[in-house]
Amino acid sequence: MTQQDINPLRNKLAGNNACIGAWLMSGSPIHAEAMASLGFDWLCVDMEHGSTDISEIEAVFIAAERHGAAPMARINALDGELARRLLDLGAMGIIVATTESAADFKSFAQSCLYAPSGRRGVGLSRCNIWGDTFDAYKTNFRPILAPMIETKRGVDEAAALAALPMVDAMFMGPYDLSSDLGCAGDFVHPTFNDAVAAVRRACEDNAVAPGYHQVICDDNELQARIDEGFKFLAYGTDILSMRQALSGVRSLKR
Could you tell me the pLDDT band of residue 254, with boundaries at 50, 70 and 90? Predict the structure, then answer.
């Protein structure tokens, strides 16, 4: 069994088409299944801003997998212990918020990779069907690892991060990044655009997939990000999408 067989998300990222996912703010497997059934390539449980606890993750991952969406998680720090637990539960990748140091990310990644590349602990768990696929998983599986660039320091470190062999994608959080750059929410500001361009260049120079969160669900905006060359895209969140769809009730009650 090849690496691509074990982690289909890696194969998709290596292709020519954009790989589109979404954030899950809640720990609801119903939300996960409803979204996965729409054809998303991946779904990412947001453990930075969302409400999901580690005990809820497994059911959410199962619901996503049922419809072919690779389960991922976003964590809010370079927490190797948490990352290992998420991988054992079946995560195909880890996104780390507010990454600012290539050296620190390299150290963190060791917790996500088996020896000799890293120091991930070996166990019989959901990721290898409690031992049934132990050898194939341990030998061939490698998670998608994606630092998030959300600060000026992160932009300055983007080239060093993209050069790390364990980095598969770099993900930009537009709200946090624009805020840190002093132009909060202004995604056409020259300072913001220059930072985005710098991160994309770092990705292109190192064959790393450039990622972006298109927060508002707008098909035209999503297509614009694809046309700009982003290959690893998050499209909305479960909660914001629901609120957007139901927001008309406000005008009806006036």
Answer: low
Give residues with Cβ within 8 angstroms of 36, minimum separation 6: 43, 63, 64, 65, 66, 67, 68, 69
Q: Are 224 and 181 in contact (CB under 8 A)?
A: no
Structure token digits, residue 127? 């990721």
Length of the chain: 254
- The count of domains in the chain is 1
Provide the domain limits for residue 165.
3-252
Comparing CA positions, the residue from 195, 199, 194 lying closest to residue 232 is 199
Q: What share of the chain is helix, strand, coil (3-state, %, to 5)?
A: 45, 15, 35
Give the CATH number for residue 194: 3.20.20.60
- Buried b / exposed e across 13-27, counting CB within 10 Å, b at 16+? beeeebbbbbbbbbb
Contacts of 146 by beta carbon, 8 Å cutoff, 6+ apart = 93, 94, 95, 96, 167, 168, 169, 170, 171, 211, 232
Residues 6+ apart with CB under 8 A from 46: 23, 24, 25, 52, 74, 237
* Location of structure tokens 């290539």: 102
Instruction: Provide the whole-model pTM.
Output: 0.93
Average pLDDT of the residues in 229-247:
92
